[in-house]
Amino acid sequence: MAKKTALYDLHQSMGAKMVDFGGWDMPINYGSQIEEHNKVRQASGMFDVSHMTIVDVTGADAADYLRRLLANDVARLTVKGKAMYSGMLNDNGHVIDDLIVYLMSEPHVSGEWFRVVVNCATRDKDLRWMAEQAARFDVALTERPELAMVAVQGPEAIALTKTVLSEFRQRLIDGLDVFQGCESEGWFIARTGYTGEDGLEIMVPDDEVVAFWQALADAGVSPCGLGARDTLRLEAGMNLYGSDMDETVTPLQSAMGWTIAWEPETRQFIGREALEAQKAAGVPDKLVGLVLEQRGILRGHQKVIVEGLGEGEITSGSFSPTLNISIALARVPAGTGAEAMVDMRGKQVPVKVVRPPFVRHGKKVFS
Amino acid sequence: MSDIRNELKYVSSHEWIRDEGDGTVTIGITDHAQDLLGDVVFVELPEEGSEVGAGDDAGVVESVKAASDIYAPVSGEVVAVNEQLEESPELVNSDPYGDGWFFRLKLSDASELDDLLDAAAYGELCEDEE
Questions:
Q1: Any idea which fold B9-129 has?
Q2: A318 to chain B: nearest residue by CA?
Q3: What is the pLDDT of residue A111?
Q4: Which UniProt keywords apply (chain B) (predicted)?
């Protein structure tokens, strides 16, 4: 039996087409994925992302624990509510999962409180790994399955969300920096997202989320499925765990080098030695963007051929509704320049190699 | 529930066939097929004047989700292709049995039409898939 979020019945009544997503019955679209995509780029859309796993990390050693567990350094979170993106690596430096961690309490007080959001498909192995690593620390890991999560994204997202919230919460939202969240009576409102647009991700108790979603819909926010979420994140050049990286590659091979906090050198995070060794030996490949300037659609697992260097593979590929051409992320040999070929259904087709993102705030950003 | 038209014939690979009564047939993909594919973004059609055999690859339809081959349900010569699909591939989603048609064939063996599924048989096939 697939798991259902608190919004399941409402999705059905709004015409959602449901598919299995990591063991959850989730909306893939409410009619047209492309229309939903365009709504988010041009106005606002909302996504049920309640399937994602929320874990609170508390206790005297919470910061020390996360500084060991994550490749990025939570000591850099110096403002209450600030968020950070990080990989969680194994001893080989390979990516167990990618995640967002929020500092929930005041910084640098004893017994900080962090909130970690990990992927749903990786929940079981993530929780097992986190619990194993917690053994040597004074920390408590508390999953928060009673919290639903709604992402409201797009240029009009924040303004429309404010219209359905109390004046107090409106002021809280006005005070949020990009990549910052705040607590409010069991809710957590954060200015984060996975679309390349401004917007909010809001954790809401299950028993309040139906009314919240309905209010947003009444205010004119378009319900969007996970199909549009995927093309939006691809345009934004954001990795998808399981497609663009997994336990066979390191962050250095996954365009996630910026998420590794090498300083201070004394911080022994899990995977550090392996990453240092890989860096010293030379990273064999890299994750890049591909653009197809002719008709056709790049797809995951298509072979990429780089003359003189060897082969790579597309990790995510789709049609870009904003650019009206096909784009992809691909892992290619380290020395790859501006051009490559892709084997598309038996035909070799030239593609441009670019540095993602492809789209930010509704506009093309690569050259 | 997807729309299945009684006046059309079908094949299990989800193409529909309309007998135009003049020795030609029009071919497209069914409502069920477009629903499975999601938003269609690109359609590659056979060349006008080319010959196709029953069951041959005759093109590709690409959606946001997947690429899918189009098969010729019967043999014949391609006498027309729907050029509108180049600019407006979304017609396959919005009007699969009308403006979203793919190509027209001049039949080389009209008896092949007898091998096609009728609406009831195709409806059962779709239900079995669900």
A1: OB fold (Dihydrolipoamide Acetyltransferase, E2P) (2.40.50)
A2: B64
A3: 81
A4: Lipoyl
